[in-house]
Amino acid sequence: VNIWAAFSSVGTFPLCIFQEILTAALFVNILEGHLITQATVFHGSEWFLVQDNDPKHTAKLTKAWIDKNMKQNRIDWPSQSQDVNPIKNLFARIKLELIKRNPKNIRNLKLQLLKIWERIDADFLRPYWASMPKRCQLVQESSGYKIKY
């Protein structure tokens, strides 16, 4: 089971759960169907996409789609800054919660993921998005190389 997830200062975006391997084409479909609509509803045009440099995020197809549809809404991430994206920390917390719930099959895993995700509120997310200015400052100070955070 794979997931795509996003959050902002107002809460979580709908969780996208899929079982196929994530390709650039699937990633573009997810951005088109999940990210842009929700980001616009939540924030109008005042939002930015933060993502790491996973090959699906940097593929020619993805870059072309982002350039065409959301160039003004992205932050280019230095290639050496691994795991600076705050969603990595959120995924670690979700994983711990899943371990406690001990799902026994894929159907139950998906159900538990959705339940955990739906319980996350803006107050819980505050430390994650509020850390971005400091994270960006540290990345800038390290000339784009890995930081400790």
From TrEMBL:
Pfam families: DDE_3. GO terms for molecular function: nucleic acid binding. Signal peptide: none annotated. Residues 1-110 form the Tc1-like transposase DDE domain. InterPro entries: RNaseH_sf (IPR036397), Tc1-like_DDE_dom (IPR038717). This is Tc1-like transposase DDE domain-containing protein. It comes from Oopsacas minuta.
